[in-house]
Amino acid sequence: MPDTEPKDTEPETAAPRTYSEQTQWMLAVRDRRDRAAFCALFDYFAPRMRGMMMKSGMSSAVADDIVQDAMLSVWRKSASFNPERADVAGWIFQIARNRQIDIIRKERRPVPEELATPETTGEHAEQVVAMEQETAKLRAALATLKPEQRDLVEKAYLGELTHSEIQIETGLPLGTIKSRIRLGLERLRHELKGAR
């Protein structure tokens, strides 16, 4: 007797990928121009970007400008976001870093003599020089870290991400994240101690 039961010929498909809440907001902005989702993105990333900019030596006013410009670019460039190619945090922070680089380059261009501001003198100038030297030492020390350590240290301390947020962003096990950050910080301390 022939088998009359219908056979399941549907191929098995992989479970749909689940995205972080931030990625879902970004997709809502990309696909539907969702303003509420953009506000949520702004509220989540703006303070983190601002902290990262200020820790890298930017003034609060310049940091605020970079955040505003970067988030405006996020809105304008949302169509180019692809969660398969880039993590939402990495994508947004890259936009902010690019804007920061633009500003640094602009500041380093020679200024016509009549527009140049007079040099600061005395104690203020010494503080500025000392701060620049410390920042240069920190950058040099960061450059000595292995890329995987440097990336996680920057995310934790410049990006102000928690270990759990880094885990979501990178997909690395929590133990690996903590270990790399600890080893990176030990190396930084050693390098900075040697630089003094």
Automatic annotation (TrEMBL):
Molecular functions (GO terms): DNA binding; sigma factor activity
GO biological process, one term: DNA-templated transcription initiation
Record region (Disordered): 1-20
Bias (Basic and acidic residues) ranges: 1-10
Key words of the record: Sigma factor, Transcription, Transcription regulation
Domain of life from the UniProt record: Bacteria
Annotated signal peptide: none
Entry's family note: Belongs to the sigma-70 factor family. ECF subfamily.
Name by which UniProt lists this protein: RNA polymerase sigma-70 factor, ECF family
Species in which this protein is naturally found: Celeribacter marinus
